[in-house]
Structures are given as structure tokens and as C-alpha cells.
Amino acid sequence: MANIRDVAKKAGVSVATVSRVVNKNGYVKKSTLEKVNKAISELNYSPNAIAVSLNNKKTKTLGLILPDITNPFFPELAKAVEEVANQNGYTMILCNSNGLLEKEMEHIEMLERKYADGIILASDSYTEERLKGTDLPMVLLDRGVNPNHSSITANNFSGAVMATKHLLKQGCKKIAHIAGPKNVLTAVDRLKGYQSVVRDSNWYDGDLIIHANYNTKEAITATKKLLEMDSSIDGIFASNDLIAIGCLKAIRSIGWKVPDDIAVIGFDGISLTDLIIPQLSTIKQPVYEMGEAATKLLINEIEVGKKESLFKEFDVTLIHRESTDKRGEINE
User: Fold this and answer.
1) Angle of helix 101-113 relative to helix 15-23, nearest 10 degrees?
2) Phi and psi (nearest 5°) for 7?
3) Does 61-154+287-315 match 4-47 at the fold level?
4) Which string of DSSP letters, residue by residue, matches 179-203?
5) Percentages (nearest 5) of helix, strand, coil residues in the chain
6) Going by fewer Cβ within 10 Å, which terminus of the chain is more open, N or C?
7) Which CATH superfamily is domain 61-154+287-315 in?
8) Helix (H, G, I), strand (E, B) or coil at 65
9) Are 235 and 262 contacting, i.e. CB atoms less than 8 angstroms apart?
């Protein structure tokens, strides 16, 4: 006698998706529904009626998958998601992928097995091939755009333009960029924004760009490498605040002063940026509003159904602090 796993294997979907079809619980794409029903028919699968009646309810649970909970930006995001979820009668399961594709997929499968009603996913990169077997309602947050899923993000390109122009306005003559990982979509957009401002400058050189993961350790190494290569660099745009904090530490270690010798600006607007010395200029993302919007959008898809994929891009804000003051200037 066929069981639910046999049906899932034949249809090429997860067990949780078959369960959703059988229980008529939650959104399932038409093409997936047809594949599952065909497999059920061919295997003559008959679900237990009692189990169906017990499972034909929502769990009021949302999954949140983040790439790196050690980056202060993401706990701030998680706080917003949890608060809005709780306000709407949902609980949240927090998962950390460490930026690994395998971990992301394991978390998605676990959330399906736990009958989560939907997922908010912040991932380094997205492909439809990876997500096509998942029929849980899903919203992409901060790090991705996919035509088949709703997405919430900030205007990373515009923020990078803003940061680079700010350094120029503050008197910087040669600006380097410590970019994030090449596979992270936010880092790619921030790099493009920087390049759009400086590429026609007579001082611009591709060697002024160096990639690092979003952590202080790699940022320290990258900063020292840049300044050893070219001591005339007097401004650094860091792809996120953790990289910028690493820049400050590296600059201090070689005896330079910020902003007297070199100016530094980050991106994200994490709470640490106004606690360090010197206080760090940054491009602030509206982190709470982004988490709030993603959660409300997901809950609406769960309870009402998704009519079409939506894309919302939030504006960012320049926060000018001590690290980009003009030489000899005191920022009030």
C-alpha cells in the first residue's frame, strides 16, 4: 500500500506539500496540485481520514531563515518580524543558515514538516530551481528578488551612490570600496552604486575595490591591504557596518586617524554605529519597517491567498557622524 512519502517522491515534491494537497490546507500552485493528484491517482493512495481531519488547521507559525545571526542587522530584523507576528496571533521559528545553501534547504524542509504556515527567507542568492518544490507561502527579505515570490528590500544602489557622493562632498580625493561577498545581491548592488559615481574619475582604478565577507576580521585584512597598496586613499565606503568597524580598527592599528587622515562610511545603520569611537557614518536601512512589511505581506498571503508577487523597495537614509567629518570639523 502506498504511503505519503511514495506520493511525494513520485510527484517530485516534499511530504509537507502532499499533506497540504490532501488536507486542502494552504496555498499550492496549480501545476504542483496537478502533479500530486496524478501521483495519488496512479498510486491509489488513500489518506487516513482521521489524520486529515486533525491536520486540516493552520498552526499559526511562521519561519524566519536568516543568513547570519551574528550580524547585528539580522537580530534587529528578527525582532520586528516576531513582534508583528505576535500582534497577529502567530509565533515565529528562527533559523540561521550561516549563508549555506544546504542549511537553507534543510530549514525549509524542517518548517514544512512542522507545518509552518509560511516562511520569510533572507538568502545570499536565489534561483527558482531551488524553491520550486516548496509550496509554502514565502516572502523574500533584504537579499533577493524573484518573480515568483514577493520581496521586501532596501534601495541598495541608491544608498551606495549616497555614501560615495557624501565622501566626495566631505573632501575625499580617492575613495576605495570594500565590497561584500560577490554572491550576495545587496553587495552587488552597492558595488554598482559606488562604481556609477567614481568610474569616470581620473583617479579611479579597479584595484580600489576589494571583496570581503561581512565581518570585522576580513575587513581588517582588506583595509590594511588597500592602504599598503595606496597610501593616498583618503576615503573608504564599506559595504556594511561590520566591515566599516573593521576598517576603523585597522586604520587605528597603523597609526592613522579617522577622519583626519581618512574618512569611513558604512551601510545598514546597526545600533553599534553610534556607540563606537569615532561614531560611524552610515546608510541606514529602515530595518523595523522592512521586517514589518514582510511579515504583514506573508500573513496576508497565508490568510487571503496570493494574487500576484509584490515587490517593495524602501528608501535609505544618510546618517552623518564623526567618521566622515571634514578635516578639523566637529560634527554637532
Assistant:
1) 30
2) -65, -45
3) no
4) E--TT-HHHHHHHHHHHHHHTTSTT
5) 45, 15, 35
6) C
7) Response regulator (3.40.50.2300)
8) strand
9) yes
Task: For residue 84, give every residue at least 6 positions away whose Cβ sits within 8 Å of its Cβ, in sequence order, or none.
Answer: 291, 292, 295, 296
pTM of the entire predicted model:
0.81
Cα(170)–Cα(323) distance, integer angstroms: 11
What is the fold, at CATH topology level, of the domain defined by 156-285+319-324? Answer: Rossmann fold (3.40.50)
| Helix count and strand count (H, E) for the chain | 12, 12
Determine the topology of domain 4-47 in CATH.
434 Repressor (Amino-terminal Domain) (1.10.260)
C-alpha 121/C-alpha 142 separation (Å) is 9
C-alpha span between 151 and 153 (Å, rounded): 7
Q: Mark 75-88 as b/e (b = at least 16 C-beta within 10 Å).
A: ebbbebbbebbeeb
CB 161 within 8 A of CB 190: no
DSSP β-bridge partners for residue 236: 176, 264
pLDDT digits (tens, 9 = 90+) for 72-127: 999 999 999 999 999 999 999 999 998 888 888 889 889 988 789 999 998 865 55
Q: What are all long-range contacts of 260-264, with beta carbons under 8 Å and residues at least 24 apart?
A: 260/327, 260/328, 261/234, 262/227, 262/233, 262/234, 262/235, 262/236, 263/167, 263/170, 263/172, 263/234, 263/235, 263/236, 263/323, 263/324, 263/325, 264/235, 264/236, 264/238, 264/323, 264/324
For 13, the grid coordinates are 515534491
Instruction: Give the residue among 125, 129, 160 at the shortest CA–CA distance from 140.
Output: 125
Share of the chain above pLDDT 90, in %: 63
Q: How far is CA 129 from CA 20, 114, 266, in A?
A: 21, 23, 34
Could you count the other beta carbons within 10 Å of the beta carbon of residue 284?
18
> In 3D, which of 304, 257, 297 has the Cα closest to residue 277?
257
Residue environment code for 296-308, b if the CB has 16+ CB neighbours within 10 A, otherwise e: bbbbbbbeeebee
Name residue 268's amino acid.
D
Q: Which three cell numbers stand for residue 175?
A: 575613495
Domain boundaries, the chain: 4-47, 61-154+287-315, 156-285+319-324
